[in-house]
Amino acid sequence: MLFGFIPGAPGWIEIAIFGVIILLVFGNRLPGAMKSLGRSVVEFKKGASDADSEGSDDGRDDRKDS
Description:
Helix content: 55-70%
Strand content: under 5%
Structural class: mainly alpha
């Protein structure tokens, strides 16, 4: 059957071909995207740890109403 991989889950050959196509199309932009993703994760972790340390002081909500 010519298109036998369509009804079921893709095999390793289809996944490899798809990966090569993605690398050819987006290869030059991947390093910048990964660097941006890494910075975002670091900032998120830093913000989460800051929020935990501020929120665990006495449990009060010190936000001012606008």
